[in-house]
Amino acid sequence: MAERTVDSAAPARGAARPVVQAEAALVRHYRRLVRLAYVALPADRDRHSRVLAAHSAVQRALPSRWARRSDPAPSDEDPAYTALRLRVLRDGLRPRPARRLLAPRVWGLRLFTPHGGEQDAALEHALATLDAPARAAFALRVVEGLTAPEAAEVLRHAGVEQAERALDAAADVGASAGVGPAAEPDLSAFDPCAVRVQPTDLLSRRRTLTAVLLVGVLGLTTSAAVLSGTGSRTRTGPVASSTGPAPAPPVTAAAGPARLVRVPADLWQHTARVDFTAWPARGDRREDAALLGRATTAWERPGPQTRAEPGTDTSPPIAPPRLLYAGTVDGAAVVLLYDGQRLARYTDGRDGGLDLARADDSDVTTAGAVVLLRRGSSVRYLLAPWVEAAETRRIDRPDTPAQALDHPDGLTPAAPGGVLTDCRGATVLQLRSSPVVAEKHAFLLADLGGLVPAHLTYTPPPDRNQPARAPREATGPDALQAWARAGCAVPDGTPGVKQLNLWAFAVQTLPQNAGSASWVCLRADRWTGEGSAATAVLLPAAQGPQRTGGGPGRSCSRFEQDTLSWAWWRSPQGTEFLLAAGSRRVARLTVKGPDWSTDRPVPDHTLAVERPARTNVQVEGVLDGGTRIGPPH
User: Fold this and answer.
1) Residue 237 class from Cβ within 10 Å (0-12 exposed, 13-18 middle, 19+ buried)?
2) Element spanning 566, H or E
């Protein structure tokens, strides 16, 4: 009997040992696994849900009894870890994973991964376009650092039939977002183990708890009444008709004026996330439950009066919206809401409606103002609580002093608008942040006809002895002069543009003592992550910029900093020249015509070729490393 007891116990101890090894591997690599799960999970849900889902997937990866035989590891990694990773990926690849009772639960708090920059936002948007196998492939390549063959083998073991196709899709998205295995990207914004915590609406939570308790008491009372009944089939009350109209569908948990989130008025002074989440509720009707109810219902049930800027989803709010404003503006009742991804401006009345715009990943500048009301060519702005001073200035009059703009409680009077692209001079906002946020920080915003004005920046000409410069605020004298001359050449001046940058990439001394020309590249980046660029030359005698090329893509961005352009120019003496210029790394310029060509080094990155007549030409540049580039199209 003793020997039988020992023999029966031995397999149990042998089977438990892999479980211990797996638990040790999970604890040792927990953060790595959770980040893998977070990147592989669908990017179209809110960050709070993805954080919890990532932790849940990893915690479910530890089975109660670890199998002795495991799938072969694609490398020399710890077999226990590779088996855990495989289970995490299989969990994320399920189309509809089942709810688990042991999944993490958070009551009364919202969890967010750290707030990232432009590259993180671009990657977030790009991941949202991938299916589950491609997201898993991206996670293996970028987060795990596996080679393509290694990642393909893991994907096949996880049940992906077309692993190579998933890897190709992941590579395309990585390239468009500027990340990849060799780029060593900073994935701190995709780390569910380093989260920020914010409370939900405390008043709403208290009401919900009270309602749940009442429902529980009512349920117990009803159960007691049923158990103590006589079993009679007699009905003593009205019965709903099966042919009558169905009741109205309930409003989802994200809607309703009672669930609107309101943050403290001074939150922006104490948080490191200075964006729309730090805006307090303002306006003289923020306690008007009827108005707030109409606004939330309009967002929850979009209709014919719902208007959305390009690239903006019209679905109901993804989380309880924050109330940013509710008041009467020039006789119109206006409500401004924010769900963490989009701004919703509700205007009451027959001619009103709901306007939606992307506003995710905003910052101290892009969350500096919102158009609250538009009447003709005039607009009234609601400014961020951290805006200490506000002014207006004509973009085409850089030497004219800016005009002060009052903004009691953040609301400005009617200010002139104007289209930035018409070359007749738009009026832009010049705002200065409170020293609590940034000392001596001023910035420009331009109204483009949408809810959120575009942030104007400026990149000065390159210094050949210094690294490439970064965009800066367009409030200095040189920046104002450049925007005054080239502003109307922006490639995109429509609603939905987040930022406009003007980059002076070359300065050329013109032949025949005709002065100098400035070569600029103007870039427009949208909230959706898309962008476009246009090059232009600013000549001494020109009344406006001469567009020389451009198109969609990432030209003239920090992901593609090499560019060139060319244009025909007639000197004051009547001589025809072909002018060309490149950015700081362009070492040679080549120009080819129907029966002639020029190829020469360009120490100052510019070229002027005298020609008797204008013909079709091809211009090409050679970088200092030997790479050839052409003008943006």
Assistant:
1) exposed
2) strand 564-570
Q: How many residues does the chain have?
A: 633
C-alpha span between 36 and 32 (Å, rounded): 6
- Residue 48, both tokens: 């709070």
Q: Which two structure tokens, joined as six digits, stand for 545?
A: 């910029």
The encoded tokens of residue 450 equal 């949408």
Is 573:560 a contact under the CB 8 Å cutoff?
no
Q: Could you tell me the CA-to-CA distances from 609 to 511, 545, 579 in Å, in that order?
A: 9, 21, 7
Strands 306-308 and 353-358: parallel
In 350-463, at which residue ranges do the beta strands (DSSP E only) sit?
A: 353-358, 369-375, 378-383, 387-394, 403-404, 415-416, 427-433, 442-446, 454-459
Which letter does DSSP use for residue 198 in this model? Answer: E
Chain-centroid distance of CA 616 in Å reads 41
Dihedral of the alpha carbons of 478, 483, 489, 492, in degrees to the nearest 10: 120
* Strand pairing category for 516-526 and 403-404: unpaired
Residue 116 structure tokens: 């990232």
Helix ranges (H only) for 158-201 are 163-177
> How many Cβ atoms sit within 10 Å of the Cβ of residue 513?
9
Question: Mind listing the pLDDT tens digit for each residue in 203-252?
Answer: 444 544 444 454 444 444 433 333 334 333 333 333 333 333 333 333 34
Spans of the chain, pLDDT less than 70: 1-19, 43-47, 63-76, 95-108, 110, 112, 114-122, 125, 174-189, 195-256, 418, 421-423, 464-468, 542-543, 633
Taking alpha carbons only, the member of 416, 366, 395 closest to residue 483 is 395
Contact 309, 451 (CB under 8 A): yes
Residues 6 or more apart whose Cβ sits within 8 Å of residue 423: 396, 487, 488, 544
- What is the pTM (predicted TM-score) of this model? 0.62
Q: Coil, strand, or helix at residue 138? A: helix
- Residue 74 neighbours by CB under 8 Å, 6+ apart: 82, 146, 149, 150, 151, 153, 154
Residue of 560, 599, 600, 567 whose CA lies nearest to 583: 560
Q: Where are the beta strands (DSSP E) in 396-441?
A: 403-404, 415-416, 427-433
Give me the amino acid identity at 202: L
Tokens of 234: 């007699």
Q: What are phi and psi of 446, to 5 degrees?
A: -120, 130
Q: Following CA atoms 418, 419, 424, 427 in sequence, which dihedral angle do they give, to the nearest 10 degrees?
A: 40
User: What are the structure tokens assigned to 543, written together?
Assistant: 């009344």
Q: Which amino acid is at 271?
A: T
To the nearest 10°, the Cα dihedral for 455, 461, 465, 470? 10
Dump the DSSP string for 289-303.
HHHHHHHHHHHHS--
User: Alpha-carbon distance 546 to 423, whole Å?
Assistant: 12
- CB 223, CB 65: distance < 8 Å: no
**Helices and strands (H and E) in the chain: how many:** 11, 27
Q: Give, to the nearest 10 degrees, the angle between helix 30-40 and helix 2-28.
A: 70
